[in-house]
Amino acid sequence: MSEVSEVSAVSDPSGPSVPPHVPVGPFQVCDAASDAVVDAVVRGSQGCAGRRPWVAFALHVGGLNSRTDPAYVAAMSRADLVYADGVSVVLLARLAGGSRTERAGTTDIGWDVLRELGRVLGRPPRVALIGGPEGLTQRAGAVFEAEAGVEVVATEHGYHSDWTEVLRRLAASGCDVLFVGLGAPFEMTWVDTHRAELPPCLVMTCGGWFGFVVADEQRAPQWAQSAGLEWVFRVKQAPRRLARRYATGVGATAALAVRVVVDRSQGRRRAGAPRPPSAGPRRPGA
Predict the structure, then answer these.
(1) Is residue 236 in some structural domain?
(2) Lowest mean pLDDT among 13-27, 209-223, 226-240
(3) Domain count, the chain
(4) Per-residue pLDDT tens over the stretch 104-143
(5) Structural domain containing residue 254
């Protein structure tokens, strides 16, 4: 008896199709290798260029911790693509039936997206950055221009009480891609809230990426990244900020793993249940 796959494809009638996805709790996660995620992000954004923002959200342990936040879950459901940015999300996606899911951290694929976008456009991508304290996006922008060959057209810190003027400047910037580094879950709900006011470009959330770009924080060694242990090095660098987040994430991952197993088991039973016998044609007078 064949098994019904939990992996399904998504397509948006207003834009190009995206790779298959798998359910991880209330989230739909792209079941694709990291290079396929990059390709889907660039193709998707270019398919909608000039018409509407094309939104890609990273799901990591901070997002798993916010799985009971209705506004956050709704924002994630309205994204064009949600990709796995963390080993816990990869493990849950594989448990849910994904066969290709890889960690696609924005700290890694962000560079690849910029390079591929430049190749497709045939010119340096115009980039806007939001997030962090005063001065961080300007410093990160200088690194992006030097190392990725982009043109940074807007930089904003992440502590505005009124976003009206920021949104006006973004709309006038002509950016091809907007990176939003406000921290999860706020950066996702911020994008969702202001989506109609954002420029019609690629919008990616990126958490604390700018801090890594300017070397305020250090990446783990490559062997630790490959082993899924980068979070250990992050906690070591900022224990007061991150220890509770990752400790809570262990419980969130365990709870979602149970949910995934139960959902898959119920799906198999429904797929394998025999059909009720046909009652046949009804006799006159019966």
Answers:
(1) yes
(2) 226-240
(3) 1
(4) 999 999 999 999 999 999 999 999 999 999 999 999 999 9
(5) 11-218+228-258
Of 12-26, 117-131, 252-266, minimum mean pLDDT range: 12-26
In a domain, 268, yes or no: no
6 occurs within a structural domain: no
The mean pLDDT value of the chain amounts to 87
Q: Is residue 242 part of a domain?
A: yes
Spacing of C-alpha 90 from chain mean position = 12
β-strands 177-181, 126-131 pairing: parallel
